[in-house]
Amino acid sequence: MRPPRARRRPPAAVDPVVNTTPAAPVAPATPEPVAAAQAPSPAPTVSESAHTVTSPSVGVFWHASSPGAAPFVEVGQEVSAGDTIGIVEVMKLMNNVAADVDGVVTSIHVENAGSVEFGTPLVTIEPRA
Question: Strands, DSSP E only, in the chain?
Fold first, then answer.
């Protein structure tokens, strides 16, 4: 038969160290001079007929099919409904994002390899009249 294991004793109580040194006086914060207010840059003009293609899911937005390849679309390029405008990668699964309308790409809102969420604007297309 084995002898019972020796129990560990709890550590001796330690008195907390109390700092009795008075705190140094703190100078009041002086306000820093405020720079002249800059007018916000005007938002780019977007017509009411412009169509924005949004992200179908959370993931990473890719402008091209592979590194070094030409991007699917560029600003000023004409696209047709169904044309691929980019790829959203979700857990190594690539989902093509297609244009919904015929028109001209007026802006690309997300940088290559940028993170996107569901509904994030990706590309704005000005529909053909």
Answer: 51-54, 59-62, 78-79, 84-90, 93-98, 103-108, 114-116, 121-127
